[in-house]
């Protein structure tokens, strides 16, 4: 009886500069001035940026 193993490669999300993210369509729904203050790091993945914005703008810390 052989056991098959699934080999899954973790693909890391690409990081983008904060300025590039602020100009992207993905973050167009957020007020750019607020987003610029919230996103303090030089680079984020898209999901990190969205999570940070959602948390900050919905009253989280």
- The level of helicity is 40-55%
Secondary-structure element order, N to C: EHHEH
**Whole-angstrom Rg:** 17 Å
Strand content: 5-15%
Q: Strand order within the widest sheet?
A: 1-2
Poorly predicted tracts of residues: none
Total domain units? 1
- What does the main sheet amount to? 2 strands, antiparallel
Number of helices: 3
What number is the mean pLDDT?
87
Structural class: mainly alpha
Number of strands: 2
Describe it.
This protein is mainly alpha-helical and 61 residues long. The protein has one domain. It has three helices and two strands; from the N terminus they run βααβα. It has helices at residues 18-23, 32-38, 46-57; strands at residues 16-17, 43-44. A two-stranded antiparallel sheet has the order 1-2. The longest helix is centred in the last third of the chain and has 12 residues, at 46-57. The model has no long low-confidence stretch (mean pLDDT 87).
